[in-house]
Design a protein that fits this description.
By secondary structure, the chain is mainly beta. The chain has three helices and 39 strands. The strands form seven sheets. It has a 15-stranded parallel β-sheet that branches. It has a nine-stranded parallel β-sheet with strand order 6-9-21-23-25-28-30-33-36.
Length: 498
């Protein structure tokens, strides 16, 4: 066990209606022998959780009523008009609105229904990979670095927020940067990923030379010390890499303050369960958060009948998914693998009080991260029908900084080996906190994953850093505790959520 921690008092907490004696843990002292600390997840969500979501009862700028015709063009025109006038809310009345794929909600605009049981968006057919609804417009190109500044520290651990640079030319407080490094052959080999094979054929986990980045913003500069607003979720080790800060400018065009709320979406005939390699147009997401969309949200939305429900694309950030109910209504054809309910490629994403409420027997990845997904990202109070069939399960290739907290879902932070195309170590700096579902917490040779307060069944073969397995811990919510500490407020240890 790598975890070092301080135990204080014991506290009674209420979980799922039962009173349980929990162990008080000083989360600030949990570390490993390399000096990595728990990531700071308090920066996840809309405006880094420094602001509440906009009021769901704020006045609308336009209101549409349901009709029997396809209303995609009508809704799109209303959204565009409101966005062009500076933003606002397009409200949909009660009833069923027929919709086709390709609806886009633009900067400063929210599409709001009259309630999940009152407003339904009905779609009968998907269109290739085009999402039904996109929050934001894809800028369609990658940013280019404006300058690079070499980081000179021997080791900067997970949870650290300050790096030393060779010089500060081109750097300034408020500047957006990528904390960058490339995957080296030695780093790949020492993580045990250099010799993956499947069916006697070699598989590539991460290609040597691939760029791995953590998007951050400079908070302050003192001499050659640069402090970032959000601490690191991936360690920088000079023995394996030559890290640097790369400044950049965001592409023109804003994708901010976009919302989708208070409605339901249904696809019929259903696409749930269709094989992932099928050619019948069932692989598009119901809701996609476009690249470089930030400070946006999906709230109180139910979605039924899709194979891919939600996708948060790369470089999307500060996104809240709150109270979203997902319903798989057919068992999964696993011939080409399992689908994902919520797929995260962006950072500072907060998934809260959501879950899979469909068929108990429909197996799926309930929440996944994809290759290289940068943290922090957090999943709180996530519900599933069966913790062995619907799991919070990073999918592939060194995502980092994921919190799974206060959930009955199974949580797997593991080496996926030659699964898929050589998914290998899927996550580092993952934290399972007060998880009641079954877990497997394993740590990469050059990384770490933690399990804290695990009361569900846990895989004994996992070599992760376990703290108080078998007993719930307080604070009940690591996320709440970290946010309270950052804001200088107090959170009760006995605070519990069922």
């Amino acid at each position: 066990m790598l975890g070092n921690y301080i135990l204080a008092l014991a506290t009674w907490v209420v979980t799922l209606g039962q009173c349980t004696l929990a162990v008080d843990v000083d989360w600030t002292t949990i570390t490993n022998e390399r000096g990595d600390h728990l990531p700071d997840f308090s920066f996840c969500g809309y405006h880094s959780s420094d602001k509440d979501l906009p009021s769901a009862s704020r006045p609308s700028s336009a209101t549409l009523q349901a009709s029997s015709a396809d209303q995609t063009a009508q809704i799109q025109a209303a959204l565009d008009k409101v966005a062009a006038s500076g933003g606002g809310v397009v409200e949909l009345g009660t009833g069923t609105f027929r919709l086709s794929p390709g609806l886009t909600i633009s900067n400063g605009t929210t599409l709001r229904g009259s309630g999940v049981g009152s407003t339904q968006l009905s779609v009968s057919k998907l269109n290739g990979s085009v999402p039904l609804i996109a929050l934001g417009k894809d800028p369609g190109h990658h940013v280019q670095p404006l300058s690079t500044n070499r980081i000179t520290d021997s080791y900067v651990g997970v949870g650290a927020s300050t790096v030393t640079v060779e010089d500060t030319k081109g750097l300034a407080a408020g500047q957006a940067v990528y904390v960058s490094r490339t995957a080296t052959a030695q780093w790949i080999r020492d993580n045990g990923m250099a010799d993956l094979t499947r069916d006697k054929k070699p598989q590539t986990w991460i290609k040597e030379g691939i760029l791995m980045q953590q998007p951050r913003v400079i908070k302050e500069i003192a001499g050659n010390k640069v402090t970032l607003t959000v601490p690191l979720t991936d360690a920088l080790d000079k023995n394996y890499m030559s890290p640097y800060l790369a400044t950049y400018a965001n592409p023109s065009g804003d994708n901010v303050e976009i919302g989708l709320e208070n409605l339901s979406i249904k696809l019929s005939p259903t696409c749930s369960g269709v094989a992932l390699d099928s050619a019948n147009g069932c692989n598009a997401a119901a809701i996609s958060i476009a690249p470089r969309t930030s400070d946006s949200y999906v709230r109180q939305v139910n979605v039924t009948g899709f194979n891919a429900f939600m996708a948060v694309q790369s470089n999307a950030s500060r996104i809240t998914i709150d109270g979203v109910g997902l319903f798989r209504d057919r068992d999964t054809d696993k011939s080409a693998g399992y689908p994902a309910d919520i797929a995260i490629q962006g950072s500072q994403v907060l998934v809260r009080g959501s879950g899979q409420y469909g068929l108990r027997t429909a197996k799926a990845f309930s929440v996944v991260t994809q290759a290289g997904t940068p943290g922090p990202n957090a999943v709180l109070r996530h519900a599933v029908r069966d913790p062995e069939l619907q799991q919070i399960y990073p999918h592939q290739r060194w995502a980092h900084g994921l919190l799974a907290e206060d959930t009955d879902a199974g949580v797997l932070f593991v080496d996926r080996g030659n699964a898929g195309t050589g998914h290998g170590w899927a996550v580092s700096a993952g934290v399972a906190w007060n998880v009641r579902g079954g877990v497997n917490i394993s740590s990469p040779p050059l990384g770490v994953n933690w399990g804290v307060g695990i009361t569900g069944a846990w895989a004994k073969e996992g070599n992760g850093s376990m703290v108080d397995e078998g007993a719930a811990v307080t604070p009940t919510s690591l996320f709440d505790a970290q946010l309270a500490r950052r804001k200088g407020t107090h959170v009760l240890h006995s605070k519990a959520k069922s």
